[in-house]
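Researcher: Checking consistency across runs. Here is RRM domain-containing protein again:
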Amino acid sequence: MNNIAEVLRINEKELLAGITGTSGSWHEEFSSSSWCYVGGLDPRLTEGDLICLMSEWGEVEDVNLCRDQDTGKSKGFGFAKYEDFRSAVLAVDNGGGMNVLGRTLRVDHAKDYKAPKKKEEDLGKEDDMGGVYGPGGEGGGG
């Protein structure tokens, strides 16, 4: 059984047992981390696209789109960290199976995920949206 079907099956079982949203839920095992794994991404998607996709379920605090070290191309998966663990639960329950650019997404908890350290040359660039929108922000004017 694939991951998406398994999540649906477990969630249905929890609903019938009346333990959804309680400490008896299977999500509780992952409550120490607000990181989610997101797989099945089209390689053309960017970090900004990943934020947009995942923000449907809550405030995204950080993302890591995994890229090939040599080419810089997306590997088709990444990680998103939410401000609140409950948003991660919503993303896992609702994001898996979503079709984006003809691909089916897989969204799962990432219990022990640790974001990579920022490289020294990347420090201070976090707020620079020039690579996404060009100079002057979204409107492109100055």
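Researcher: Does this match what you'd expect to see?
Model: One thing to look at in this run: Helices lie at 3-17, 47-54, 85-95, 130-133.
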